[in-house]
Amino acid sequence: MEIYGAYGNYLPEIKDEIMHKIDxxxxxxxxxxxxxxxxxxxxxxxxxxxxxxxCQRKGLDLTPKSALNxxxxxxxxxxxxxxxxxxxxxxxxxxxxxxxVVVKExxxxxxSKPNGYRSYHLIIKVSCPYPDINGxxxxxxxxxxxxxxxxxxxxxxxxxxLKYKHNIKNPEQIGNELKRCAxxxxxxxxQMQTIRQVIHEYD
Length: 203
Known about the structure:
This protein is α+β, with helices and mostly antiparallel strands. It has helices at residues 11-33, 48-57, 64-70, 84-95, 150-164, 171-199; strands spanning 40-45, 75-81, 100-107, 120-128, 139-149. The protein has 6 helices and 5 strands. The chain has a 5-stranded mixed sheet.
């Protein structure tokens, strides 16, 4: 079942345009400050199967409206930064762009989830030259942006593997180890940030 309907054809184009805008922003900042805003920029469209599963989990109808307007993460962008400060710097820049509007944010960097997950989530709304679910042209579409450090991203990849492997004999023990690892990585991220600040103290 193609839950996005005809609107699914527009999603890759919108994703690419958002990534292009973020790349342009990064290049502009790097030209001014001499420092990169991020290390990696990755985009994806949530597959129909995953979106159907999410809608069912949330008790939503299996319609394009549910997938595109209620869930708001059909388009996903991940920005992997070197340092914690870079995450907040980028969030600040994204909030003042004229091509998008931040409609929701969750800071799991300063306050992680109970399992140790750390990331900064933004839901943005963009205007595009395509019809949207309400028949408007230009239409409004949503995307989720996740901002993480390299350490946070590595941890999240491992945790994702654990979540979807159903034949693991001791998931609880591994979960506890992952939580301990998350705390150690968080401490390391803070130490790296502090060292960076000391290095740049006399700039």
